[in-house]
């Protein structure tokens, strides 16, 4: 018997009993939809976790502390100084792309600029890094260039918005923005959500064309915005040190590379050390650093590099632990949801088996005639398996189509938006919104293949039952 004839018989037999076939396929559709949608909800949770981690900044950064401090601590109580020698050891690790020490101003620091010191920041974070490692570390310059000479500094992305106008009162004394981690978002009554403003106001001045003055010292109280404190608070080190600075670039906000990338000053390490010595000559700054940042070439190697650094006696922290925990949690949720959906498909498998058993019983005479006409046992088995597999395949395809439509509908409802952008985001993702339901392309293929396999397995026993019926008995006993 030709394979084309077998397929034609399968189609005729399925269409002969349309109601039974439709109901059986419907059972597979329900089971397929259950699995796909349940797994898609778990994948949505995984996408939300990924977006959350991405919002935290560069995931390939490891923060290194002196031995015994920070997450992880040292090993065997070993205490190692975090100095230039240690930095060179980190750079010698093959998987490391860049390393920069980090130091901070140990005193209260403020900024002022403009005529009559009109614009001030009472408290500013001052961070020192190796500015020659900007590219290697993945720092992103939004504007300007890297410092090349002493006195040149970088600003955090939103540092210019920290300045207060001392000659204005109330809300007019500050300029607010809606972007970044410290932004003041705008409430949209139509959607009930908080969003970024379409056009934030500019800061009071252009930070790249306006020189700044840094005020710092051991006894400085930092209140430049108040009356009568411009000279500082005299103490052991006298009046605070005022240093002229020239901003030459603005860094993109990334908290994994230091909070100053959001709001603060970023100086070359040598300049920061000199500022500390000038502010208080009696206090010798130790050669060890507060911490160091290590950037790994591949995010998958963060754990391996972190273990090597800990073996040197340093404490480390990274998003590795959080990422692994979230991934494990996401996998568990997907398994649970997928298991719940599999129950529906199991019920559908029972329905396919029941349909095929009834089909064998009703077609006993037909089986006997086929055998008497020379049809082989293989042909009859393929015919029944083909009918069962076709039911599973059709149910899988229809179930995937319905699941795709349901997934888009779920996402549209969660976005509370029916505009073009909302539709595109609901289908393919992207943008800042995270989808509740995510169906990867391989899940469609798996669902169709699994449904077809369920159909074949469910039809295997009825097919074997059909081929075991003797031809003469089938014709004689058939009613």
From TrEMBL:
<keyword id="KW-1133">Transmembrane helix</keyword>
<keyword id="KW-0812">Transmembrane</keyword>
<dbReference type="GO" id="GO:0022857">
    <property type="term" value="F:transmembrane transporter activity"/>
</dbReference>
<dbReference type="InterPro" id="IPR050250">
    <property type="entry name" value="Macrolide_Exporter_MacB"/>
</dbReference>
<keyword id="KW-1003">Cell membrane</keyword>
<dbReference type="GO" id="GO:0005886">
    <property type="term" value="C:plasma membrane"/>
</dbReference>
<feature type="domain" description="ABC3 transporter permease C-terminal">
    <location>
        <begin position="340"/>
        <end position="470"/>
    </location>
</feature>
<feature type="domain" description="MacB-like periplasmic core">
    <location>
        <begin position="21"/>
        <end position="162"/>
    </location>
</feature>
<dbReference type="Pfam" id="PF02687">
    <property type="entry name" value="FtsX"/>
</dbReference>
<dbReference type="InterPro" id="IPR003838">
    <property type="entry name" value="ABC3_permease_C"/>
</dbReference>
<dbReference type="Pfam" id="PF12704">
    <property type="entry name" value="MacB_PCD"/>
</dbReference>
<feature type="transmembrane region" description="Helical">
    <location>
        <begin position="21"/>
        <end position="45"/>
    </location>
</feature>
<protein>
    <submittedName>
        <fullName>Antimicrobial peptide ABC superfamily ATP binding cassette transporter, permease protein</fullName>
    </submittedName>
</protein>
<keyword id="KW-0472">Membrane</keyword>
<feature type="transmembrane region" description="Helical">
    <location>
        <begin position="441"/>
        <end position="460"/>
    </location>
</feature>
<dbReference type="InterPro" id="IPR025857">
    <property type="entry name" value="MacB_PCD"/>
</dbReference>
<comment type="similarity">
    <text>Belongs to the ABC-4 integral membrane protein family.</text>
</comment>
<feature type="transmembrane region" description="Helical">
    <location>
        <begin position="382"/>
        <end position="410"/>
    </location>
</feature>
<feature type="transmembrane region" description="Helical">
    <location>
        <begin position="335"/>
        <end position="361"/>
    </location>
</feature>
């Amino acid at each position: 018997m030709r394979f084309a004839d077998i397929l034609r018989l399968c189609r005729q037999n399925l269409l002969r009993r349309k109601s039974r076939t439709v109901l059986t396929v419907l059972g597979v559709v329900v089971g397929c939809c259950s699995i796909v949608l349940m797994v898609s909800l778990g994948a949505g949770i995984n996408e939300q976790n990924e977006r959350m981690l991405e919002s935290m900044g560069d995931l390939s950064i490891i923060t290194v502390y002196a031995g015994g401090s920070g997450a992880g601590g040292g090993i065997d109580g070993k205490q190692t100084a975090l100095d230039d020698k240690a930095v060179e050891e980190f750079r010698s690790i093959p998987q490391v792309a860049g390393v920069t020490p980090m130091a901070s101003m140990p005193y209260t620091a403020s900024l002022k600029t403009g005529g009559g010191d009109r614009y001030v920041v009472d408290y500013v974070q001052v961070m020192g890094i190796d500015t020659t490692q900007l590219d290697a570390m993945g720092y992103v310059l939004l504007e300007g260039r890297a410092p090349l000479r002493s006195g040149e500094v970088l600003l955090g992305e939103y540092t210019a918005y920290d300045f207060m106008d001392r000659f204005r009162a109330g809300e007019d004394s500050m300029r607010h923005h809606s972007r970044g981690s410290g932004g003041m978002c705008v409430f949209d009554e139509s959607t009930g959500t908080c969003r970024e403003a379409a056009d934030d106001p500019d800061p009071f001045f252009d930070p790249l064309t306006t020189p700044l003055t840094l005020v710092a010292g051991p006894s400085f109280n930092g209140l430049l915005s108040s009356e009568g404190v411009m000279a500082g608070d005299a103490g052991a080190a006298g009046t605070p040190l005022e240093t002229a600075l020239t901003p030459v670039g603005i860094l993109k906000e990334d908290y994994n590379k230091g909070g100053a990338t959001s709001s603060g000053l970023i100086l070359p390490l040598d300049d920061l050390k000199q500022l500390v010595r000038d502010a208080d000559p009696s206090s010798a700054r130790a050669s060890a650093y507060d911490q160091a940042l290590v950037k790994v070439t591949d995010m998958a190697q963060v754990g391996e590099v972190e273990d090597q650094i800990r073996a040197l006696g340093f404490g480390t922290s990274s998003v590795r632990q959080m990422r692994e925990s979230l991934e494990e949690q996401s996998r568990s949720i997907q398994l649970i949801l997928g298991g719940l959906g599999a129950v529906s498909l199991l019920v559908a498998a029972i329905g396919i088996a029941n349909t095929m058993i009834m089909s064998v019983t009703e077609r006993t005479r037909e089986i006997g005639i086929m055998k008497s006409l020379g049809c082989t046992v293989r042909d009859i088995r393929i015919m029944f398996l083909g009918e069962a597999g076709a039911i599973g395949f059709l149910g899988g395809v229809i179930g995937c189509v319905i699941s795709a439509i349901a997934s888009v509908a779920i996402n549209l409802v969660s976005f509370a938006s029916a505009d073009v952008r909302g539709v595109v985001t609901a289908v393919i993702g992207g943008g800042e919104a995270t989808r509740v339901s995510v169906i990867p392309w391989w899940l469609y293929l798996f669902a169709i293949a699994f449904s077809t396999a369920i159909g074949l397995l469910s039809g295997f026993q009825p097919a074997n039952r059909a081929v075991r019926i003797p031809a003469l008995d089938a014709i004689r006993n058939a009613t």
